[in-house]
Recover the amino acids of this structure.
């Protein structure tokens, strides 16, 4: 098995099932665009399978580092959440 260096330092997971159910399939792209606009290319935004939170009016999102803690920390992005607030949370270094 070979290892290789990559140009990013953290993964951001966006539930594809939530995006489809909320008719927000473009949310992943919107987050990627906002991070690029903020000059932050070290975060990789990926769609993933169900994260088993299944909010009725939102999309589940998780940072890779938040999945490493017990219990894992997931976030729900609502329809009214501003993209800038989402980016600020993703870039929070804590």
């Amino acid at each position: 098995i070979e290892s290789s260096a990559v140009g990013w330092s953290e993964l951001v997971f966006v539930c594809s099932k939530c995006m489809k159910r909320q008719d927000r399939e473009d949310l992943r792209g919107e987050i990627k665009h906002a991070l690029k606009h903020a000059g932050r290319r070290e975060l990789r935004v990926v769609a993933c399978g169900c994260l088993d939170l299944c909010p009725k009016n939102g999309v589940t999102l998780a940072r890779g580092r938040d999945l490493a803690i017990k219990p894992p920390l997931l976030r729900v992005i609502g329809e009214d959440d501003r993209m800038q607030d989402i980016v600020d949370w993703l870039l929070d270094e804590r």
Notes: Helices lie at 16-21, 27-37, 64-67, 83-91.
